[in-house]
Design goal:
By secondary structure, the protein is α/β, with parallel strands linked by helices. It contains twelve helices and 32 strands. About 20% of the residues lie in helices and about 25% in strands.
Length: about 525
């Protein structure tokens, strides 16, 4: 009998109080039709209620591709455990995602785990082991001594414990079962055999399936198309049909935000880099241009969301990758796409023109194993004690994503972002920077609101680290920040030191000017010539 059903039928048997896991990376590989059907079922019937949701990565943009927001309903959602949360302001409504409101107003139990933990935890669930044990995250917000990843007051259970093993401290994530998982694939036959031939990412698909099946759970897949049984080589079928209980076909599903379908994201074809639109001149572009000077050939480089993701794009705009030179630069993100160009904005997570795509759990094996030696990551706050925050600040609750795993295991770190935020306006003329309007929110603060990573501890372990902004560059020493570069046109006292809540450890004796080429409002190709 065929396993292909409609979405309403697929979610009809999910009972009250159960646990639902779901794949997805922002808009990528996200089964929107299944989450929508579940949300509609609750609105019509008030059932199922009191569900726990497990999202290894933040899924959906909460705008055109709502994903998590479909199920962000009081009564339906009792608890959520997520590797990241989506927190943009909708340009049409001016509102943030409904899930963020539920978290801010303490309407649900919300927990945020690092994505490395959400991925590796699934492996332990699949193995039916007691739990996942790691030293990654000690001293950060996921450490029970700093809150244990609890994002609301309703979150009272200790889902993470600190334990001692052979004289060392570890974080321990006890396992619990997943009753139903939603996954996303390209193709399925009537027996439920799944393949991912047209997807830019695999993410947690396979791990979710094995974790659910190990405890008698159900697997529901959303796919782009149905194909006859036996028409694909077995080597292309990544998931055996006996692990899949139901399949929903949605030929209209988006590949990701603003992209219906683009083969260049999974290597189906190649797009000339000359077709990439230039990045508009801005403070973020200055940051990316300066950070690009830290990138080395044939060193696996991993880029985080935000200004850091613009680094490969400005390098492409400068013509660095012409004449086949792109193969000398090894780029990836936490989501497993290798080679090609890391994209930014809503297309972040996948690479354009990739060479290979790793499963999400294996990608964090690579990250935790230190294979990504250079990392460029964004920052929201940096404090006098060398702590950096990207996980919870102001009204934003994005979580850490892959930040903690990446930062702890890289050899060289660059933190990128504007010096202040909240209305910052800058201008460029004659290779100089001018602050037209200062941002209302300072990012160099006495104490961060959340601890995502201790940079000073990393430096003491042998890491090298810099903070790069549009107006200043700092090296990070064990004693604190050293101001090493400032932008042309910037007054050091007024525009740098007075915009910090603490003084840097020192100002370099040979304080340098940042390259004026970074501040020329012209295409990168011309700037580089």
């Amino acid at each position: 009998m065929s396993k292909i059903v409609d979405a309403a039928t697929a979610v009809a048997s999910i009972p009250d109080g159960s646990t639902v896991g779901c794949v997805g990376v922002i808009g990528w590989v996200t089964p929107d039709a299944l989450l929508k059907a579940l949300g509609e079922r609750f609105r019509k019937t008030a059932s199922p209620k009191d569900l726990t949701f497990y999202f290894p990565v933040g899924t959906g943009d909460a705008q055109g591709i709502r994903r998590m927001d479909h199920v962000a309903q009081e009564g339906l959602m009792r608890r959520i455990v997520g590797g990241s949360y989506i927190n943009p302001v909708d340009p049409t409504t001016g509102k943030r995602p409904e899930l963020m409101r539920l978290i801010r107003e303490n309407r649900i139990e919300a927990y945020s785990w690092p994505i490395g933990a959400t991925m590796h935890w699934l492996r332990e669930v699949a193995r039916r082991s007691p739990g996942y044990m790691t030293r990654i995250g000690l001293g950060t917000y996921i450490d029970p001594e700093n809150g244990g990843g609890k994002f609301t007051e309703r979150a009272q259970d200790n889902l993470v414990r600190r334990i001692d093993f052979e004289g060392q401290s570890y974080l321990f994530y006890p396992t619990w079962k997943l009753d139903t998982v939603f996954i996303y694939a390209s193709s399925a036959d009537e027996e439920g055999n799944l393949s991912f031939e047209n997807e830019a990412l695999v993410s947690s698909n396979i791990a979710l399936i094995l974790a659910a099946k190990a405890h008698g759970g159900r697997v529901i897949a959303q796919v782009r198309r149905a194909v006859p049984h036996g028409t694909r080589p077995a080597s292309e079928v990544r998931i055996p049909g006996m692990f899949v209980d139901a399949v929903v076909v949605d030929p209209s599903m988006m590949m990701t935000t603003d992209v219906k379908f683009e083969p260049a994201y999974f290597g189906g074809e190649r797009v000339p880099l000359s077709q990439l639109p230039p990045i508009p001149m801005s403070a973020d572009k200055v940051v990316a241009l300066r950070a690009s000077k830290e990138v080395r050939k044939r060193e696996l480089s991993i880029f985080g969301f935000g200004a850091a993701a613009d680094v490969p794009l400005v390098m492409a705009e400068q013509g660095v990758f012409e004449n086949g030179s792109l193969k000398d630069y090894w780029f990836t993100t936490e989501h497993g796409s290798y080679g090609g160009i890391v994209m930014s904005g809503w297309q972040f997570s996948a690479n354009l023109n990739p060479d290979a795509i790793l499963d999400g759990v294996y990608q964090f094996d690579a990250i935790d194993g230190g294979l990504c030696r250079f990392a460029a990551l964004a920052f929201a706050q940096f404090d006098r004690g060398g702590l950096v925050n990207v996980s919870k600040f102001g009204v934003a609750n994005p979580g850490a994503g892959g930040f903690i795993d990446i930062a702890e295991n890289a050899e060289r770190l660059v933190f990128t972002g504007t010096f202040t935020t909240g209305g910052l306006d800058v201008a460029f003329a004659d290779g100089k920077l001018r602050i037209v309007k200062e941002g209302k929110v300072r990012k160099f603060v006495n104490k961060t609101e959340h601890i995502t990573y201790s940079v000073i501890d990393g430096v003491k372990r042998g890491q090298t680290a810099r903070v790069i902004t549009e107006r200043a560059v700092f090296e990070i020493a064990a004693e604190g920040l050293i101001l090493t570069e400032v932008a042309p046109g910037i007054d050091v006292r007024r525009d740098v030191l007075d915009q910090m809540e603490f003084a840097p450890w020192k100002v370099a004796d040979d304080l340098k000017l940042m390259d004026e080429a970074f501040f020329l409002d012209m295409p990168c190709q011309a700037r580089a010539s």
